[in-house]
């Protein structure tokens, strides 16, 4: 057997080899260190490799804390298992169930097609017409489901815009019906062969239309608390860190929208401007058209008409959605009294409201009832009407791996925090003390956005958010200042097909090459990071008072303000740094993370 053949066969079983060899490769971390931090770092290293390589399914890797850390005597198994169902987990479960109800009644498709009809047929407005509904729906639904729903519509529109599909008729075909007899005129159809310039223009149009959907889904996921898994991980971690000190983190549905929605909207507009300029060209951006307005309009109108008039089920889901949003917004409004004040503090949260409306979906009828006082005619016979949602539909369509990913993230973060590993790793990041806080935050968000290109955004946030919290406290900065920036930066994965499922879905159409995503995505990464840092340092700092660290976080630290240079802080690093012991022997753990 030649070496090449041997290597080829090894490549076929690469995932199995990664699963088997990784624990042995990192074994010196646990053996040499002989501390709880080193044992925790060993488990963290294994999970990081599995998450990056996807040698095991992401959800399966999320179960490893239950196996690894009790064996390594880092944390008891009952405490680890308790992390898999938390308040934020139930929030995510209820909201994803709600999204399934939206998909079942096809309300999301109606919203998308209606928006496209309003956008018109000009390519730049069509691109915006695809991006806006994708962005909006990804705030409430799975980014993957939103992209998968929008892509067939994109491809149908692109087919209509293809210049090779336009036909020129010689003699019109006529059909005359008279006394059940028909007469046909002669018809000669000829295809107009597009020029090379038209073909090139159409090729770039296909690239832009496909990639804009994925990017809009990624951006929209950061706009609301329910948008993507890292958002829920941040909420859960913030609650843990702040509640340990008797504080309320303030991270809820309302506060998230106030902080993240403006930045998400600005990022969407910048993404649209950049992608339309990049793929359509600056000279053609204003006046270039491909195909006919009537053709695209007729196509979209036909698909919209196939949905029929809005149904009772769609109206009911909209009503549930409005009630849910109103209850969330009125629970803790900035000024007026809230209904949450009728309950003891921390007894009723956003998840309780979500569960209430979620349960209602299994009871509320999907059609107008024909019984009791709902009868329209006295002759109507009473019939059982199915509910808006049934459990079989939920079982079939619910992304159960998301629950495990959230739980695994919470478990990993809890283990790193309790073992002291997060604090130890944060010591390696104290090099950032030489920078102003805003500049440090800028560098960190760029680093996170690069990391999330090659690993799951859920895994990235689960690993880094606790570290950012410890780093912020050590530098006398409000933990939310770095945690929030790190969390949202994980959604800025635009450069590689493997970065997010939406990227992979649009790449599979065959219109895109990796270089297209790298060239367009790298600029968009930078633009979104700039917008994020602008938001966290302006309206974010003003609303959450991020410029001040709560006194409860201060341990041997006398400086509170973040407005000045961290290097000039009066905090005593000698006092706050814990002895690293053999942590320096953990094989440069900062590079592993």
TrEMBL record:
GO terms for cellular component: plasma membrane. Signal peptide: none annotated. The keyword Transmembrane helix applies. InterPro entries: Na/sul_symport_CS, SLC13A/DASS. Keywords: Membrane, Transmembrane, Transmembrane helix, Transport. It is a multi-pass membrane protein. It is found in: Membrane. GO terms for molecular function: succinate transmembrane transporter activity. The chain crosses the membrane at residues 16-36, 48-72, 253-280, 347-364, 398-416, 428-448, 454-473, 480-498, 518-536. The keyword Hydrolase does not apply. Its main location: membrane. PANTHER family: SOLUTE CARRIER FAMILY 13 MEMBER, SOLUTE CARRIER FAMILY 13 MEMBER 2. Belongs to the SLC13A/DASS transporter (TC 2.A.47) family. NADC subfamily. This is Solute carrier family 13 member 3. It comes from Patella caerulea (Rayed Mediterranean limpet).
């Amino acid at each position: 057997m030649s070496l090449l053949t041997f290597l080829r066969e090894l490549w076929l079983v690469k995932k199995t080899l990664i699963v088997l060899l990784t624990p042995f490769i990192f074994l010196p971390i646990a053996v040499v260190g002989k501390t709880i931090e080193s044992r925790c770092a060993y488990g963290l290293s294994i999970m990081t490799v599995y998450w990056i390589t996807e040698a095991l399914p992401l959800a399966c890797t999320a179960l490893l804390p239950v196996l690894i850390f009790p064996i390594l005597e880092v944390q008891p198994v009952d405490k680890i298992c308790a992390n898999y169902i938390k308040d934020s987990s139930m929030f995510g479960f209820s909201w994803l169930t709600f999204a399934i109800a939206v998909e079942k009644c096809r309300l999301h498709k109606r919203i998308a097609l209606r928006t496209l009809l309003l956008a018109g047929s000009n390519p730049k407005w069509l691109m915006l017409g695809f991006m806006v509904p994708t962005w909006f729906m990804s705030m409430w639904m799975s980014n993957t489901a939103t992209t998968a729903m929008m892509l067939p519509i994109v491809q149908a529109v692109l087919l209509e815009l293809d210049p090779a599909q336009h036909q020129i008729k010689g003699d019109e075909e006529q059909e005359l019906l008279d006394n059940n007899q028909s007469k046909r005129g002669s018809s000669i159809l000829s295809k107009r062969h597009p020029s090379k310039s038209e073909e090139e223009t159409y090729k770039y149009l296909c690239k832009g239309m496909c990639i804009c959907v994925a990017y809009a889904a990624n951006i929209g996921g950061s706009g609301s608390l329910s948008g993507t898994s890292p958002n829920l991980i941040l909420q859960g971690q913030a609650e843990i860190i702040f509640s340990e000190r008797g504080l309320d983190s303030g991270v809820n549905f309302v506060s998230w929208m106030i902080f993240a929605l403006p930045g998400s909207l600005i990022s969407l507009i910048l993404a649209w401007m950049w992608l339309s300029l990049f793929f359509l060209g600056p000279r053609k951006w204003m006046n270039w058209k491909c195909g006919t307005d009537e053709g695209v309009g007729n196509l979209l109108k036909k698909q919209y008409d196939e949905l029929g008039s809005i149904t009772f089920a769609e109206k009911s889901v909209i009503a549930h959605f409005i009630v849910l949003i109103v209850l969330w917004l009125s629970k803790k409004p900035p000024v007026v009294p809230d209904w949450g004040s009728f309950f003891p503090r921390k007894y009723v949260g956003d998840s309780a409201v979500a569960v209430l409306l979620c349960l209602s979906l299994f009871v509320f009828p999907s059609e107008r009832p024909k019984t009791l006082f709902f009868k329209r005619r006295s002759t109507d016979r009473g019939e059982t009407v199915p509910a808006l949602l049934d459990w079989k539909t939920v079982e079939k369509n619910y992304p159960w791996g998301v629950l495990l990913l959230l739980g695994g993230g919470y478990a990993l973060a809890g283990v790193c925090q309790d073992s002291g590993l997060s604090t130890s790793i944060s010591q390696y990041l104290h090099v950032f003390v030489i920078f102003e806080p805003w500049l440090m935050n800028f560098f960190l968000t760029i680093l996170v956005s690069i990391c999330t290109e090659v690993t799951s955004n859920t895994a990235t946030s689960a690993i880094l958010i606790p570290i950012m919290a410890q780093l912020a406290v050590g530098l006398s900065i409000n933990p939310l200042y770095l945690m929030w920036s790190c969390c949202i930066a994980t959604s800025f994965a635009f450069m590689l097909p493997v970065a997010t499922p939406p990227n992979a879905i649009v790449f599979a159409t065959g219109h895109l090459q990796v270089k297209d995503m790298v060239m367009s995505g790298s600029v968009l990464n930078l633009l979104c990071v700039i917008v994020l840092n602008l938001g966290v340092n302006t309206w974010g700092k003003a609303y959450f008072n991020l410029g001040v660290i709560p006194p409860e976080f201060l341990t041997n630290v006398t400086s509170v303000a973040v407005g000045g240079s961290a290097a000039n802080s009066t905090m005593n690093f000698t006092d706050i740094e814990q002895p690293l012991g053999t942590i320096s022997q953990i094989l440069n753990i900062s590079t592993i993370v």
